[in-house]
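Sample pair:
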Amino acid sequence: MKRILRDLKYLLSRIFQFLLYRLIRAYSLTFRLTVENEAPWMDYLKSGGTVLLCTWHQQFFSAIRHFRRYRGYRPALMISRSRDGEVIAGIAQRTGWVPVRGSSSRGGKEALGEMIARVKETRLAGHITDGPRGPIGKVKPGLIRLAHATDAVIVPFFVSAQWAWHFRSWDRFMLPKPFSRVTLHFEDMIRLEPAVTEEDFEQQRLSIEQAMLPWLK
């Protein structure tokens, strides 16, 4: 009986994820989307370079529609082992991304090791810099460690919307309103030198954080 209930729960979860993904796709298609500065890092990737795309937790929703374009690379994305993370992982899979389950609070070491292996293989990955629980505007060390271990350039990306709702959540989650003009902007590539000391590492983390903070809504 327990196995039947477990299988039923799994089936219902899969159906919910499928329907939610379709809803997100349909909703995102209403955006009048403009993409800026994508070509430089795409050319670098195509020439054999390795790229880590990163953004704030607040802004990742608006990129789901466009990021399906990268599914051919099978890019990895670290997602927490929480219940919310299970839903997000299902959506990521349907977008063509490979979820790696873990976060700084649970399974982080193992997940980082898997991310490193996948990035070395596919040369493209995404990272939510302050997720999954914040604090907002705080770049976690995992991004820097991942860049060092894979010799990847970091490419922050941001979303701005003509009209948007901001939720009363820890990240002030942003949801563009239907038919809003939405801009997905990629910053220039950032290459980190090897960090000899802990102070070097922290300075690199802070420099990424300071570069990204002006885009936080």
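The domain at 2-215 is CATH 3.40.1130.10 (Glycerol-3-phosphate (1)-acyltransferase).
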